[in-house]
Amino acid sequence: MGQTRASARALFRPKNRDFERQTSRNFHIDKRGKNMSDAPDQRLLDALLDSWDRNNTILLNLLRALPEGGLETRAMEGSPSISELFTHIHYVRLVLVFEDAPEFARNLPEAEWVVERDPGRIVQMLNDSAKAVRDAVKSRVEAGRDMNLHYDHPILLLQHMLWHEGYHHGQIKLALKVAGRPLTDKEAGPVTWGVWMRKT
């Protein structure tokens, strides 16, 4: 796979063990009602998978909306470039599928923060890793199977990725703004918020 399970897990291992113990005490996670043997509500699962598809569409739309040379833009010296943020998103998706539903794993890239200057190649990467996440979650939910390593329920993988990718989406737009090349609401709205709010 180009990556050992132990080194992949290290990406998500908290560095501050005291903080980890404290937050575990202060923020109890209620696991009631999460029995994986319960039959899934297919309509609800379809809606959740649709939200994942829309999220990936929004990322691709953001990529396509970048100004000329936008992939090289970074918020400040030492920050990742926009290209590296996109390839990081792809990498994290694949690591988590590899660890939690290895039957859907792809080969892991050799590096996490990769400078990829070809937007078409980034589109292919994101579509491939989005499908891996989608297929892994759908299969595990429908089969009533837990994830192998993380999460109390497979759907939490989707929720984690939505949160993670929204965070980096904001970083990308901020980098463009700092560089004096912002995407206006008129440009960004229809291809981002409009995708979330559209009724089919």
Describe this structure in words.
It is a single chain. By secondary structure, the chain is mostly helical. The chain has a single domain, classed as dinb family like domain (Four Helix Bundle (Hemerythrin (Met), subunit A)), CATH 1.20.120. The protein is built from 8 helices and no strands. It has helices at residues 5-10, 17-26, 42-65, 82-100, 119-143, 155-178, 185-188, 193-197. Helix 3 (42-65) packs antiparallel against helix 5 (119-143), helix 3 runs parallel beside helix 6 (155-178) and helix 4 packs antiparallel against helix 6. The radius of gyration is 18 Å and the shape is globular. The chain starts with a helix and ends with a helix.
Give a brief outline of the structure.
With 200 residues, the protein is mainly alpha-helical.
Keyword list:
58% helix; 8 helices; 200 residues; single chain; 0% strand; mainly alpha; Four Helix Bundle (Hemerythrin (Met), subunit A); globular; disordered N terminus
SSE topology sketch:
Blueprint: H1 5-10, H2 17-26, H3 42-65, H4 82-100, H5 119-143, H6 155-178, H7 185-188, H8 193-197
